[in-house]
Structure formats: structure tokens, C-alpha cells
Amino acid sequence: MTVSSGTKRRAKDLALQVTVVIVVLVGWKVWTEIADSLFFPPPNEVLREVWDGWIRDWSNTWDENLRPSLTRLLAGFLLAAVLSVGFGVAIGRSRALGDYVEPIIHFVRSIPPPALLPLFLVLLGIGDNMKVVLIAVGVFPPILLNTIEGVRSIDPLYLDTATAYRIPRRRRLTHVILPGAAPKIFAGLRISLSIAVILMVISELVAATNGVGFRILRAQRQFKMVDLWAGLVVLGAIGAALNGVLALIERRVLRWSRV
User: Fold this and answer.
1) Is it the case that residue 228 has pLDDT exceeding 90?
2) Which of 208, 204, 218, 211 is nearest to 62 (CA)?
3) Dihedral, CA of residue 209, residue 212, residue 217 and residue 223, to nearest 10
4) CA dist., res. 47 & res. 254, Å (int)
5) Contact at 8 Å (CB) between 148 and 91?
6) Burial class (CB in 10 A: 0-12, 13-18, 19+), 108
7) Distance between CA 231 and CA 216 in Å, rounded?
8) Contact 205, 213 (CB under 8 A)
């Protein structure tokens, strides 16, 4: 029984990834021993705290930290995704509309989202609504601009053919425009997902009583360095998991482009 080249390649990639992780952990261990500092705990202590403080006590961790953070992140991200794709298709299809609104979009995009936090605190308070809006506003421009570019990059022949065959506008949108713009839309979604994680943490560092960011801040205030580093590891795992889920959705939605 022969092993396909694709299987060999995946096995080789997996082995390389595992090797990199091992090298990083060994380097981390050696570095902490050389530094001999309270602020840089060894990886075995950090991973033990991840197990004891996050995984073993899963019910409390989920209710107090993970669920609030994921709810805010996904609510803001999905809200921005729906609105930005809708506006992006409309702007991409209308050059006149784009000429009016694109300068405003680029102006808003140039404002760092964390700079809007004081304004949102005044307008919306310190509740979840403020955090969701901050995340949505921060991730809106990348998805919007990628959607506009994706719609404008569609081959005009496809649109002319749809018009010639008198395909209804709704089917033209769902079968021509959105599929044609989908690669760039997903590019914007991948960029925005990382921004959403960053803004989630920033909002919880400033005004929150729960969430991953609040737990990291509490550990820093109490000088619990192991807890702080464990929170950072969990945060990285959350980001990697969300990116993995988005990559799976992208491969499924865009499988037609690989045929």
C-alpha cells in the first residue's frame, strides 16, 4: 500500500510544526533559567497554571472569562461583517457612491480604534454594548475595503452575461457578485479577526469585571506573573482556534475556486 505525496507532505508539515513548538519551549525554558527573574516564569509552571487555573476549573472559567469575552468578540465581529459586506457591495457596484463615501472611509480608517475608547466610554458607558461597538467599529474598515475591491475586481464579462440572460438581481448577487468577491472578503475577515481579538482585550483591560483581558489585568495588579503568562497563552490559543475555524469556513465556501 503506497502513501500519496499529499499525505507525505502533510505529515512532513506536521512534524515541522511540532519541532518548532518543541524548539520554542526549550528556548523559553533556557531563557528563563538564564534570566532568573520573577517576571519570566518557566514554561512548565505556565502550562501547569493553564491546566489548573483554566482547564480543570472549566465551569467557572467559562462563565467568568471565556464566555463573556467570546460573546463580545463574536457579536462585534459578526455585526461588522454583515454591515461591511452589505455596504461594500453597494459601494463596489456604484462608482458615484464610492466617490462620495470613500474619502470618509479612509479618514475613519486612519483613526486607531483604541483612540475611540474614551469617546465610547462617555457615550455608551462601561457595559458590553461599548465593547461590542468598539470591536465592530475597529474591524469594519478592513472588511468594507476588501469587499469593495472584491466587487470591483469581478470580470465584467460575468456581469454582462448575467444581464444578457436576464438573471434576476437577487440571483446575480448570490451567484455572481458575492462568489466573485468572496476571496477578497475572506482576506478582510482574516485581518479583522486579529483586530477583533486585540480590541476585545483592550476594552476588557479598561472597563470590565470579567473576561480574559480582565483576568490578565488582575494577575498583573496582584503580581501573579505565572497567572499573567497563562492568560496570554490562553489568549493566543483563542486567537489560533478562531483563525482555524475561519480557515475551515473559507476552504468550504471557496472550494469551487480550487477545482
Assistant:
1) yes
2) 211
3) 120
4) 37
5) yes
6) middle
7) 6
8) yes
Closest CA to 189 of 224, 160, 146: 146
92's grid cell: 463596489
Looking at domain 64-258, its CATH class is mainly alpha
Question: Hunting for cell 519570566 — which residue is that?
Answer: 40
Whole-number Å distance between alpha carbons of 200 and 113 = 11
Give Cα separations from 118 to 77, 105, 113 (angstroms).
20, 21, 10
How remote is the C-alpha of 153 from its chain's centroid?
Answer: 24
Rounded Cα distance, 228 and 49, in Å: 10
Determine the Cα–Cα distance for residues 177 and 175; give it in Å rounded to an integer: 6
Measured distance CA(228)–CA(102) in Å, rounded: 42
Stated pTM of the model = 0.88
CA distances from 42 to 5, 17, 25, 33, 49 (A): 39, 21, 9, 7, 11
Residue 64 burial by Cβ neighbours in a 10 Å radius (0-12, 13-18, 19+): middle
The tens digit of pLDDT for each residue in 47-77 reads 999 999 899 888 888 988 999 999 999 999 9
* Nearest alpha carbon to residue 6 among 19, 250, 20, 14: 14
Q: Give the three-class secondary structure for 132.
A: helix
CB of 181 within 8 A of CB of 147? yes
Q: What is the pLDDT of residues 119-152, one digit of tens each?
A: 999 999 888 999 999 999 999 999 999 999 999 9
